[in-house]
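Case study 2.
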Amino acid sequence: MAKARVTFSDVNVTVNVPVGTRIIELSEAVGSYIAYNCREGDCGVCLFEVTKGQENLSEMTTEERTALRARFQEILDGWLATPDLASLQAKMQRENFAGKNCRLACQTQVFGDVTIAPL
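Prediction:
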């Protein structure tokens, strides 16, 4: 069976796993700090950043795109409703805001070597 190496930079742990394993399953096993709620791509909470090996992950699913879009909208709506600049700055520092190298751990499968970090 083909294997892949996944490095979790937050806990400095590298594991060898079968190709096709979901990131959320690995995160729990190694004690990484990727937060989650639903494990099904509905909530958009299990964000992580790919620091190396983006090409070795599964393609983004429709469910993942939808969840990320909803998460972005939730964050933006909260920011827009904030009454003053100081509160807005504090809120922005607390929020996980996903960039182009971010994925959902519940939806992402590993197909080769990758290094990741929770947001």
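The beta strands are 3-8, 13-18, 47-52, 102-104, 114-118.
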